[in-house]
Design a protein that fits this description.
The protein has a single domain, classed as Ferritin (Up-down Bundle). With 193 residues, it is mainly α. Helices cover 71% and strands 0% of the residues. This is tRNA-(Ms[2]io[6]A)-hydroxylase.
């Protein structure tokens, strides 16, 4: 369903288990950024009422995920710490067309968002299946289901509002691009690392 070019090596979960605090803190900030991204899309595309409505719901859900991860962090005696850079997302952002019109910018932002959700969903699935911590296994299973829905929302809006753009071609290009950059990830205890 996610159409990713390269799956994460299952041994990544072993790296994650060596530093649960790091994965949780990184994950919390990923959820915050996902909420902010949805709000940013709304801000620049408020003329699309259905998009505004769905992305507001998505932003609220992402903030709820942020709150859930933060709760686990506190319960385990960890600290949230400062916001972190997500090098994977920064590399993926380079794919975005900066010289295009508003429609092209919207489509690229929606596809970019769909890709992040797809990769997160894939990582959450792996965590739910392989992590030894039963609480986190269930938690990541529930999030995997949610992220798959988010991926679908972004892809659907890209197709709907991508008039005059070959959205499927652009998505395939992004899948190829992501497949190249993801090869250098999966080596750290972060959601996309």
């Amino acid at each position: 369903m996610l159409h990713l070019k390269l799956e994460t090596d299952p041994r990544w979960v072993d790296i994650v288990e060596s530093n649960i605090e790091e994965i949780l803190v990184d994950h919390a900030w990923c959820e915050q950024k996902a909420a902010t991204n949805a709000i940013t899309i709304i801000t620049y595309n408020s003329e699309h009422e259905d998009l505004v409505t769905q992305l507001l719901e998505l932003a609220i859900e992402e903030l709820e995920h942020f709150q859930q991860v933060h709760k686990i962090i506190k319960e385990r005696g960890y600290a949230l710490g400062p916001k972190r850079k997500d090098h994977y997302v920064n590399q993926l952002f380079k794919f975005m067309n900066r010289g295009g019109n508003r429609t092209q910018s919207l489509v690229d932002r929606l596809l970019f968002s769909a890709m992040i959700e797809a990769r997160s969903c894939e990582r959450f699935k792996l965590l739910s299946q392989r992590i030894k911590d039963k609480e986190l296994s269930k938690f990541y299973y529930d999030l995997m289901v949610s992220e798959a829905g988010h991926y679908t929302i972004f892809i659907t809006f890209a197709r709907k509002y991508g008039k005059g753009i070959d959205v499927e071609k652009r998505w395939k290009e992004l899948v190829e691009f992501e497949g190249k950059i993801i090869k250098s990830y999966g080596k750290s205890e972060t959601i996309h690392g």
